[in-house]
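Tokens as discussed.
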């Protein structure tokens, strides 16, 4: 049996256990665990094994060691990426935008309504920008990823699309470069100023 198949079979048979162990590792080391990073690591490992044609150690322990080292590397890359992305003022996600503007737990009922309205407005505004600037498949994938919080693996399975991750990243990169938080806040204020 080829090594990439051995790798995938072992991962499939032990997926939940591995996921739990990797999550516990992240908790213990105070890293942010992300299912997307875990899924991406599996895909990248499989692709690398297929490209090389072999895996040095195809024992269960060897496979898990290889996956674990790759996962740690991907975590570090993601941490570096998120540290750099926090430095700019452009939008990368609806939840991030909402959290930055309204992270106060001591809110009046009116403030809560205003905050919820802003979150909904920001979501619709971003979706409108994406719909006007991308083909329907990019828009649909971004909607599912953002609103349903699906992993890239789940997106690919549900939509039967190829290049799911890249299409969603294309949209996110576009938003990051072209839509600012101030722009959304200004549009929101113009729309709802008279109500609050």
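Sequence:
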């Amino acid at each position: 049996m080829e090594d990439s198949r051995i790798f995938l079979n072992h991962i499939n048979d032990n997926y939940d256990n591995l996921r739990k162990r990797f999550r516990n590792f992240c908790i213990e080391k105070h890293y942010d665990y992300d299912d997307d990073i875990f899924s991406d690591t599996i895909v990248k490992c499989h692709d690398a094994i297929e490209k090389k044609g072999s895996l040095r150690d195809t024992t269960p322990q060897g496979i898990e060691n290889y996956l674990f080292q790759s996962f740690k590397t991907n975590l570090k890359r993601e941490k570096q990426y998120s540290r750099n992305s926090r430095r700019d003022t452009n939008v990368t996600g609806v939840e991030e935008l909402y959290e930055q503007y309204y992270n106060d737990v001591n809110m009046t009922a009116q403030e809560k309504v205003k905050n919820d309205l802003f979150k909904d407005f920001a979501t619709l505004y971003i979706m409108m920008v994406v719909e006007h600037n991308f083909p329907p498949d990019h828009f649909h994938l971004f909607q599912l990823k953002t609103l349903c919080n699906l992993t890239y693996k789940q997106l690919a399975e549900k939509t039967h699309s190829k290049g799911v991750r890249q299409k969603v990243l294309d949209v996110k990169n576009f938003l990051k470069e072209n839509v600012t938080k101030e722009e959304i806040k200004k549009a929101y204020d113009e729309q709802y100023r008279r109500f609050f």
